[in-house]
Amino acid sequence: MTRSGRTAVVKAAVAILLIVAGVYYGISCNRDRPERLYARAIDAAAGGNIEGAQHLYKIIVQRYPNSSVRKDALYQLGVLEYLYLNDYTTALEYFYDVVYTYPHYTHTFDAYMYIAQIYQEKQHLPQKAIEIYEKLLSTTNSTEELRQLLPKLAFEYERAGDLPKAIDIYERLLKLYQTPPAGYLYEFAYVNYLAGHYNEAVRDFQKVATLYPRSSYDFSAQLATADCYEETGRSEEALSLLNGLKSQYPTETSIISVKIDSIQQRIRNKKK
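and the corresponding structure tokens:
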């Protein structure tokens, strides 16, 4: 082969390499671009530039349907609309897009929780919130997720007046803890009180007082125990308990005295 022929071959090979490199580089840049946009959006949101972050997330969602960060961008758009922009209808649209398009995504559970929260707190549709919580309850076995979900579901049933369901949910919640948190244990006892299950309520109010002595829950639980005694005709036990609370909680004597006076008046009325 002549020198000029070899030169032509080398030039052709170099041209091919450049084309291949250019194609690879273009693909690589295209592949990396959504991730770079997502990183910029995160930085923008962290710096308080919510509209800038929103714009970048929308670019990812609209232009890169197959990107690995599209689901993250959708979820973050929902969070921005809900927490910062107060557009709850649009937030629901993004969160629903997440849960239907990416059912196994890391934040699918969180998206459902936001959906229920919007229905509950912003749109005042408690039944729809209950439906979402029940859907999650049927699909998750995660202790961490159940600890987030069950208190909200129990509260919604309590607020809706479905006390048997609220009691069932609180029972399931308390089983997730070796030592139940004071608030959950107190609410469980209180729902039993509302349902007229006074013996069960006394049992759990006393657990609160035993596990969390000298706490705000302790005082409330002991007052409620006195109410349970009164409801079951154990007025003398109620008075004894309330008189004992005067020395334990000297700053709360006013409310204690009101309850004592009320019980004593009822006793006098019964004797007439």
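(Above: one complete record from the training split.) The CA atoms of residues 149 and 211 lie 24 Å apart.
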